[in-house]
Amino acid sequence: MTATDRFRALASKLLSRNGQSMSVIKRVNASVYDPDTGSLTPDETTYTGKGVILNYTDSYLHYGGRVSGTSSVQIGDRRVLFTPDDLTMPMPVASVDVIVINMVEWLVAGVSPINPAGDTILYDFQVRRE
Predict the structure, then answer these.
(1) With b meaning 16 or more CB within 10 Å and e meaning fewer, what string describes 87-97?
(2) Is 9 helix (H, G, I), strand (E, B) or coil?
C-alpha cells in the first residue's frame, strides 16, 4: 500500500466517521432536449460522498483570503472537505457545479484538490449559497 493509498484511506475513514452524506452535481454546459416536454433539461451527473462543512475563520475573512485563485472569500461562504465515493469524479468547476448538503444547494465558488503524488484523495471547496 502506497502512502497515497494510506492518506486516502485515512481521509475516507475520518470523513465517514465525522462527516455527513453530500452530493456534488456536475453540470455540463450543454442541455438535452426533451421532445416530450419541449424543453431543455440540463445534463447533470451526481456524485455522492462524505464531507464536513466548516466556517472560515474571522482572520481569514479579514485578510481577504482566497481559495485557488477564485474571488475572495465572502461572509457566509463555507469550506467543505469532501471525498467522493467514486474516485473517478472529474474535477468540479467553480460557478457551475453545486454541492447539496441537507437538501440545500451550495454553488461551488472555488475548489482545490488535495492530491499528494498526483492522486486526489479529497476536495477542499469554497461554497456559497445560491
Answers:
(1) eebeebebeeb
(2) helix
Give CA–CA dist 121/130, Å, rounded. 27
Q: Is the pTM of this model over 0.90?
A: no
Q: Residue 124 is placed in which grid cell? A: 477542499
Segments forming the whole domain that contains residue 99: 3-129
3-state secondary structure (DSSP) of residue 107: strand
Evaluate if residue 40 carries a pLDDT over 70: yes
Residue 81 near residue 122 (C-beta atoms within 8 A): yes
Structure confidence at residue 60 (pLDDT): 65
CATH number at residue 77: 2.40.10
| End-to-end Cα separation, the chain, in angstroms | 41
The domain total for the chain is 1
Vertex 63 angle, CA 61 and 56, to 5°: 25
Contact 126, 97 (CB under 8 A): no
